[in-house]
């Protein structure tokens, strides 16, 4: 998953394969390749439902205090407004599709790649982009 359309932030590669513009805002799909041990701080998407479609690797997914494990061929649906996070576990990276409905949140990944923002040093800039993209950080990443 490397070409001119692929962006990288904190070791994660993102490629938007269906943009919000292409769907009239209805949805977007991002192909993500995340290294072992990676995962975002806990957060809430206020406007988007999020679906993970697992292709390779394994993720521990935390949704409002409930942890599940998802591997290749499995999908996880996270309704908007639900606090959640995930962490890549096991011994291989996780490649998964992130389906966002409605679309638009993929702009957050572009902002982060453009600024190469670091956690926690650049949290003010990260939180500014998160707010712009209807997301609130609520806690730490998974251990």
- Could you tell me the number of beta strands? 11
SSE string:
EEEEEEEEEEHHE
Average pLDDT: 95
Number of helices in the DSSP assignment = 2
Helix proportion of residues, in percent?
A: 10-25%
**Beta content:** 35-45%
Overall 3D form: globular
Major β-sheet annotation = 6 strands, antiparallel
Strand ordering within the main sheet: 1-2-3-10-5-8
Radius of gyration (Å): 14 Å
Detail the poorly predicted runs. none
Return the structural class: mainly beta
Distance between the termini: 27 Å
Account of the 3D structure:
The structure is a single chain. By secondary structure, this protein is mainly beta. The protein has helices spanning 106-115, 123-132, and strands at 7-9, 12-18, 28-34, 42-45, 49-56, 58-63, 66-70, 75-78, 84-89, 94-101, 135-139. Strand 1 (7-9) and strand 2 form a beta hairpin. The mean pLDDT is 95.
List the topology elements.
Layout: E1 7-9, E2 12-18, E3 28-34, E4 42-45, E5 49-56, E6 58-63, E7 66-70, E8 75-78, E9 84-89, E10 94-101, H1 106-115, H2 123-132, E11 135-139
Antiparallel strand pairs: 1-2, 2-3, 3-10, 4-11, 5-8, 5-10, 6-7, 6-9
Pick out its properties.
44% strand; globular; 143 residues; mainly beta; 6-stranded antiparallel sheet; 3-stranded antiparallel sheet
């Amino acid at each position: 998953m490397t070409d001119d359309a692929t962006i990288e932030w904190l070791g994660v590669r993102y490629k938007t394969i269906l943009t919000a513009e292409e769907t009239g805002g209805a949805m977007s799909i991002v192909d993500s390749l995340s290294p072992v041990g990676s995962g975002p701080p806990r957060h809430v998407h206020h406007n988007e439902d999020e679906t993970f479609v697992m292709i390779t690797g394994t993720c521990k997914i935390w949704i409002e205090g409930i942890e599940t494990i998802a591997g290749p061929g499995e999908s996880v649906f996270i309704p908007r407004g639900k606090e959640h996070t995930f962490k890549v576990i096991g011994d291989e990276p996780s490649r998964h599709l992130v389906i966002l409905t409605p679309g638009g949140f993929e702009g957050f990944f572009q902002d982060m790649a453009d600024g190469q923002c670091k956690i926690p040093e650049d949290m003010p800039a990260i939180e500014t982009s998160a707010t712009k993209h209807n997301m609130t950080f609520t806690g730490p990443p998974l251990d």
